[in-house]
Design goal:
The complex is a heterodimer of chains A (277) and B (338). Chain A is of the alpha/beta class. Chain A folds into 2 domains: 14-100, Translation factors (Elongation Factor Tu (Ef-tu), domain 3); 113-236, 3-Layer(aba) Sandwich (Rossmann fold). Chain A is built from 6 helices and 17 strands. Chain A has helices spanning 80-87, 123-135, 158-164, 191-198, 213-225, 267-271; strands at residues 4-5, 14-25, 28-34, 48-53, 57-62, 65-66, 71-76, 93-100, 113-119, 143-149, 171-177, 187-188, 205-210, 233-236, 252-253, 256-257, 264-266. In chain A, strands 5-4-8-2-3-7-6 form a 7-stranded antiparallel β-sheet. In chain A, helix 2 (123-135) links the parallel strand 9 (113-119) and strand 10. In chain A, helix 4 (191-198) packs parallel to helix 5 (213-225). By secondary structure, chain B is of the alpha+beta class. Chain B folds into 2 domains: 2-58 and 84-189, no CATH class; 209-242 and 267-332, no CATH class. Helix content of chain B is 28%, strand content 21%. Chain B has helices at 9-19, 96-110, 117-123, 174-182, 209-213, 221-226, 234-238, 283-302, 312-316, 323-332, and strands at 2-4, 22-28, 31-36, 64-73, 76-81, 89-94, 126-131, 157-161, 167-171, 188-189, 245-252, 255-262. The chains are: A alpha/beta (277), B alpha+beta (338). Chains A and B meet through strand 1, strand 5, helix 1, strand 8 and strand 15 of A and strand 4, strand 5, strand 11, strand 12 and helix 8 of B. Strand 1 (4-5) of chain A pairs parallel with strand 5 of chain B.
Chain lengths: 277, 338
């Protein structure tokens, strides 16, 4: 069976196959998704896709890496759909539709130093941009990555975080956990605190932030304190979504739909919107 | 001016129904709605009332609508879209508030980068035969919301009441002209001058409200205004322009289908995210979003209110929440406390 008729309707998914599953943390797995004809659709860093396990449900996820032959989704187990996704095995056919949203301004950031600040599963959307920067290394200046999680076990993408990314030219990776634990001699601090300690220079730098809403709110304040202006600070937001195409109503913040006008906003744009996220 | 004589109204409906589904206002017991013209509904045709209780939005946005079916065997899966093409259809007697709401739904579903295929399939073959209003109902306030009761928008034909129970018939679009030619044997010629304007503003103070609300997001008035609301959602279900939908799945064994159905911004689940965070957790957050969507956000995005002054939410709110009083109260209080 490989039947697939969407009648050109954007709400009808096409069928794709999970070709690999990576255990990232006790509650995060990365799913590699592709089709017999290659990637389901082209995706830019920061864009979203709707993933469905057909008999269970459909949910919006950020693409955590757009490889040439597959898409990666790092998915935390938090509800009915994600519980079921964590039970599937390699080879499972799923539904996908997209890409949705504006994505990160990768072109506008060329020639800049990049500062990525992530918390928890919030590193997933940042990773699509981080890996894009490394793939186009000559186009970006110094790269700094600050990432925090509750515990060592909860740090996502460990191999990249501790081996691949620090080995890249002109790149620094800072990692922190919330509480001390045996065997960890690294930093113990919340992300905003550690960020202010590191006090990165705003000089020719763009900061890209993603994490739980409370972390984003605190980090945005830290950025202002450290002298970043509103155009230099970018974040990507999350809301409940059903359609992905700005019709079903629920993902609005003020007059903007996160699925269509977002999920990526700079701080100047964010300040125009009600603080309802 | 063409005239549809009273005696030919049902003949015209019969003729329309031969070509495709034809929706007419019917009153049955305590409720009224737009229903298919058929031998069963003939006796319930109601051309004597203003608004129907239920809005005509299901004609283009059914309360539930199957989107696609799927079959799953082991790790395999296939999807088949529901490609319903209802073809030529008509709605007869829709009022200006509801046709303006149809124009708003067109903006949502057919513009801004994506066309909704399910909506388009129902909408594109639809001929809209609207009926001008000359005398407002108790809770009408369409003119305050930018609606012209004498010139319903999104109409292919506009009907004007004649004293003898017939209608003056004015084609407004090519589709309307074509229909006028097809019905040539049932329409007559007559003299008719459009009625004088009457007042449909309902004393609503809508001028400048979108701009004012842009400064009132954090105003304490919202808590007071939302206090009586029970989040029952009847305002959203009866509203001709509320369009929010949910997408849900029905699975039986290895097969199933995914469908969409009306949703309501009044319910906490509407924005409840997996993992627990809810950006509109409190009742007043949801209440505020509904009114801001109708009176500010939609204006900013699409240049028109998402309220067309039909008055249904005023009549049927079990708590007596009245969008006119709300608007007027919002106009009275001091603006920015942000």
């Amino acid at each position: 069976m490989s039947g697939n008729c969407t009648c050109g309707n954007p709400l009808v998914p096409s069928i794709a196959r999970v070709v690999d599953i990576i255990d990232e943390t006790p509650d995060v797995k990365t799913f590699y998704v592709t089709t017999d004809n290659g990637i389901p659709f082209p995706v830019m860093p920061g864009q979203l896709a709707m993933v469905s396990l057909l008999p269970v449900g459909e949910g919006m996820f950020s693409v955590s890496w757009q490889a040439e032959d597959h898409l990666e989704f790092a998915i935390r187990r938090v509800g009915v759909l994600t519980d079921a996704l964590h039970e599937i095995e390699i080879g499972q056919k799923i539904g996908v539709r997209g890409p949705y949203g504006n994505g990160f301004p990768v072109k506008e950031c060329e020639g800049k130093n990049m500062l990525f600040v992530g918390g928890g599963i919030g590193l997933a959307p940042l990773r699509s941009f981080i890996k894009y920067c490394f793939k186009n290394r000559e186009k970006y200046g110094k790269i700094q990555i600050l990432y925090g999680a509750r515990s060592v076990a909860d740090l996502c993408f460990k191999r990249e975080l501790f081996e691949e990314w620090p080995a890249q030219p002109d790149t620094q990776v800072f990692t922190t956990i919330d509480r001390p634990e045996p065997g960890w001699d690294g930093k113990v601090a919340f992300v905003p605190t550690y960020l202010e300690e590191l006090n990165p220079s705003p000089q020719n730098t763009i900061a890209v932030i993603c994490g739980p809403p409370i972390m984003i709110k605190l980090v945005l304040k830290s950025m202002e304190k450290m002298g970043f202006n509103d155009e230099q600070v970018i974040t990507t937001l999350e809301m409940r979504m059903k359609c992905g195409i700005g019709k079903c109503g629920r993902c609005n913040i003020g007059p903007e739909y996160i699925c269509l006008d977002g999920p990526v906003f700079n701080l100047a744009q964010l300040k125009q919107l009600p603080p309802e996220w | 001016m063409k005239v549809l004589p009273k005696n030919n109204i049902e003949k015209v409906l019969d003729r329309l129904a031969e070509k495709g589904e034809t929706y007419v206002p019917v009153t049955k017991g305590i409720t009224s709605e737009f229903a298919l013209w058929s031998p069963d509904t003939r006796e319930y045709l109601d051309l004597g009332s203003l608004n129907t209780v239920l809005s005509p939005k299901p004609v283009v946005l059914p309360q539930t609508e199957k989107m696609y079916t799927f079959a799953v065997v082991g790790q395999e899966a296939e999807v088949t879209a529901v490609c319903e093409q209802p073809g030529s259809r008509a709605i007869f007697g829709i009022r200006a508030c509801d046709s303006k709401a149809l124009a708003a739904l067109d903006l949502v579903f057919l513009t801004r980068g994506y066309e909704d295929g399910f909506y388009r399939a129902r909408r594109q073959g639809l001929t809209v035969i609207a009926r001008a209003c000359t005398k407002p109902g108790l809770n009408c306030f369409c003119e305050a919301m930018g609606v012209s009761p004498l010139e319903p928008e999104a109409s292919d034909v506009i009907l004007y009441d004649l004293a003898d129970g017939g209608f003056a018939w004015e084609a407004k679009t090519e589709k309307g002209e074509e229909l006028t030619r097809d019905l040539g044997d049932l329409l007559t010629e007559g003299n008719f001058s459009k009625p004088e304007k009457t007042d449909f503003s309902g004393n609503a103070r809508s001028e400048g409200i979108a701009q004012k609300l842009a400064t009132m997001f954090e105003h304490p008035i919202w808590e007071e205004l939302a206090a009586p609301c029970m989040n029952c959602g009847i305002c959203t279900y009866l509203c001709p322009s509320c369009y929010c939908f949910d997408i849900q799945v029905k699975t039986r064994g290895s097969e199933g289908y995914r469908f969409r159905c009306w949703d309501s911004c009044m319910y906490p689940e509407y924005t409840q995210m997996a993992g627990g965070h809810n950006p509109r957790e409190r009742k007043q957050d949801r209440f505020r979003n509904r009114f801001l969507h109708k009176l500010e956000f939609f204006c900013e995005r699409y240049g028109t209110f998402l309220c067309t002054g039909c008055g249904r939410c005023i009549v049927f709110c079990p708590q007596g929440i009245n969008i006119l009083s709300i608007m007027n109260r919002l106009q009275e209080v001091g603006a920015d406390v942000r």
